[in-house]
Amino acid sequence: MDDLHSLKKAFLDDIAAVSDLDGLQQIKSRYSGKKGLLTEKLKALSSIPADERRNYGKLVNELKDFIEGTVKEKELAFREIEKERRLLTEKIDITLPGKPFFFGRKHPIYQILAEIKDIFVSMGFGIEEGPEVELDYYNFEALNLPKDHPARDMQDTFYVSDDVVLRTHTSPVQVRVMEKKSPPLKIIAPGKVYRCDSDVSHTAMFHQVEGLMVDTDVSFSDLKGVLELFVHSFFGKDTPVRFRPSYFPFTEPSAEVDIGCIFCSGKGCRICKTTGWLEVMGCGMVNPRVFEMSGYRPEEYTGFAFGMGVERMTMLKYSIDDIRLFYENDLRFLKQF
Ligand code: DAH
User: Fold this and answer.
1) Which of 107, 153, 187, 256 fits a disulfide with 246 by CB distance 3.0 to 4.6 angstroms?
2) Do 57 and 125 belong to one domain?
3) Rounded distance from Cα 334 to ligand 1 centre (Å)
4) What CATH number should be reported for the domain holding residue 139?
5) What is the pLDDT of residues 81-130, one digit of tens each?
6) 128 found inside a domain
């Protein structure tokens, strides 16, 4: 009988030390497995003298029930602990914020372009487009810039062939529209233009908005009125505007439009090169030579034209000092607009 006592004691020690289901499985096979310690005792029953067998057999069976019952209980307890652990670790915290969902939006250049278009459309201008791969004829020649004209050097041109270029400005749209439509004309032509140039204020591709108004009695004061109204709508009604004499082959007289520096309020700073003024666009009265080449009679019609850079307008409006930011696709920059 002592052997049964020590077997029970050994079992109780083992059970007390076990800490998981794997360990429990090992105990189970150590005692109740095919060659388990308890199984051996059961097998040995037949070799016990008959008078002792009854009593001994009863005790072995009690021990068997005890061991199997204890193992079962322990197993249930371990399964419960495991379930608790999983419930805790796999818990979904419904108070956590959801995953953010980002909406796309218009690129800042196209937001400003839409604003510029709106202002001119509200003044009765229509919108026209022209090709970005343009004939040398429309980009230069018909705008009074013959092949050897020194002003061609002002624009670093991408040549596709001798006669074909990537348009360096939106001015060729003027000519294309005049060839197709007769006056009166009041249009703007927005679009991409290309120049072989790159630094903090130049990219090889940028956007311009061209403007053209032609009728029998369009004067320089009409030009001033339209552009002043535009500047005041775009930059604010108190923005100072001035027209400074300049030169463009396609206009005569020509002017540059300046606004009072919005960075220093005209006091003079690094950005306005201490002049207190910022250049925002070129303009002038359409050169009679351009009318002639487009098939309009200069004796009958007068008109004005202007051209501005959309990137430049956006940089001035939002105080952006590097044009390349527009085209690096850095969301931290783009999301601000
Ligand atoms: N095409 C000129 C440029 O890209 C801008 C310009 C100046 C357009 C005067 C005009 C104008 O229509 O009259 O620099």
Assistant:
1) 256
2) no
3) 29
4) 3.30.930.10
5) 999 989 888 888 889 998 888 888 999 999 999 999 999 999 999 999 99
6) yes
144 token code pair? 């009074």
Supply the pLDDT for residue 154: 64
Residues 157 and 112 in one domain: yes
* Same-domain status, 194 and 290: yes
**How many domains does the chain divide into?**
2
Read out DSSP for 292-332? Answer: HHHT--TTT-EEEEEEEEHHHHHHHHHT---GGGGGS--HH
Ligand 1: residues with CB < 6 A are 169, 171, 210, 248, 251, 282-284, 305-307
Pocket test for ligand 1, best of 145, 154, 169 (most atoms within 8 A of CB): 169
Q: What are the tokens at 292? A: 């002639």
3-state secondary structure of 116: helix
- Separation of 291 CA from ligand 1 center, angstroms? 16
pLDDT of residue 91: 84
Question: For residue 251, which atom of ligand 1 is closest to its CA?
Answer: 13
**Structural domain contains residue 99:** no
pLDDT tens for each residue of 44-53: 888 888 888 8
Q: Is 284 among the domain residues?
A: yes
Domain that holds residue 165: 108-334
Q: Are residues 39 and 168 in the same domain?
A: no
User: For 1-29, what is each residue's pLDDT tens digit?
Assistant: 788 889 999 999 999 999 999 999 999 99
Q: What ligand 1 atom has the least distance to the C-alpha of 211? A: 12
| Separation of alpha carbons 131 and 292, rounded Å | 22
